[in-house]
Known about the structure:
CATH superfamily of the largest domain: paralog of FGE (formylglycine-generating enzyme)
Radius of gyration: 22 Å
Family: Belongs to the EgtB family.
Structural class: alpha+beta
CATH class of the largest domain: Alpha Beta
Region (Disordered): 1-27, 336-362
Function: Catalyzes the oxidative sulfurization of hercynine (N-alpha,N-alpha,N-alpha-trimethyl-L-histidine) into hercynyl-gamma-L-glutamyl-L-cysteine sulfoxide, a step in the biosynthesis pathway of ergothioneine.
Bound molecules: fe (ii) ion
Pfam families: DinB_2 (PF12867), FGE-sulfatase (PF03781)
Helix content: 25-40%
Keywords: Iron, Metal-binding, Monooxygenase, Oxidoreductase
Distance between the termini: 60 Å
Number of domains: 2
Number of strands: 12
Largest sheet: 4 strands, mixed
Amino acid sequence: MTAPAHPSDPATTPAASTTPPAASTPGAVRAAAREALERARRRTLALTDCLDDEELCAQHSRLMSPLVWDLAHIGNQEEIWLVRAAGGQDAIRPDLDPLYDAFQHPRAERPALPLLPPEPARRYVAAVRDRALAVLDTARLDHDEADPLLADGFVFGMLAQHEQQHDETMLATHQLRHGPAVLRAPRPAAAPADAADLPAETWIPAGPFTMGTDDEPWALDNERPAHRVDVAGFWLDTVPVSNRAYQAFMADGGYEDPRWWTTAGWAHRVQAGLHAPLFWRRADDPEATPGGWLRRRFGVVEPVPLDEPVLHVCWYEADAYARWAGRRLPTEAEWEKAARHDPATGRSRRYPWGDADPTPELANLGQRHLQPSPVGSHPAGASPHGVRQLIGDVWEWTASDFAPHPGFTAFLYKEYSEVFFGPDYKVLRGGAFGVDPVACRGTFRNWDYPIRRQIFAGFRTARDASPDETAGAGR
Ligand SMILES: [Fe+2]
């Protein structure tokens, strides 16, 4: 059923560059765009070449598309935006547009569509890519270019992000699929020596900060514009909630006690039969397994590692855990302030550690590993206040609904973000191990339904200052 594994998966090599910093030259933008597009394509092919045609065309879960749909959809979007819109060229395969329009066909319907088989799909995306790179070679990418598609290479950056986001979705399909493992990557390093001694929570002082961005060249519409937000002082977990901590919630009957759940959350818990994170099952010999639980991870069954951030929990589970712990989920503004505000200068950084692109030392991104790093990892990537792992490892659920920043303008089209604004979706921040650096930064916003568990999401918790802590404000 399965093609040979790819032990030297090119998607696991470190990223060379991420996005052009503001005020890059057109030449630097062109090089960054080419590198980002080529890196995305190496990953796309690594995620699809490792499976045979039957598996590529199968629907591994009704939540997901067949992988062959994602593959050709990536090419179709690239044709629409880079070849036709940016390059002004005629369509290559206009007949494919309706088939690969995500809004016309929900995922559950896609296996029944007359999709391109794997080999024609590969030829199609390669042909589109040749034309797209030729457009990139000659496009005007100056910062003051009048066409907003081309200025700072925006549309090329947008398409590299689009492909990487589908690669992340395809990685989730790999996790849902049954069958022998086909993806390989080294395990992350053990936690650093000081991880056990970190304070459980970190104080983020009160005050305004700049949320969102005006000058990140490839930031998407929902990250814009920059605006000031006043945030009351609050306590935030120094590291994401671990499997060990989550198992304490489970062992204390957290899944059986409606006190910890919202009304909607409890109804969902009962109806869906939730009793543990997705992909977990009780060990046959719980006494011999630390914590007593096993998980399936990309085709491998292994004991749940207690010091890893909890993964594959929905928003309702995260929210229930936080209430059980006497805490709450952070708001999106709190999360972004903790991740970006530099108290020394008052400005907001691109990332917790500063403005430099992510490296393997700073954050677990880019599918270099197939799991999060242990809690307390990546001290070099900590925020100025010492909060760790805000970027990478696991997406973090926030308390906030997905809403536009004040002054939001849809760009390039309403279906990118605007149609999703509202109470149906909760915001996730920070990216996960399967997120490429080009699609992850301090302003990047992800959103999903509160019932979703197949995404690579965990969380951390927060609390308000107590009255005596407020009296000592300014600490
Ligand atoms: Fe898409």
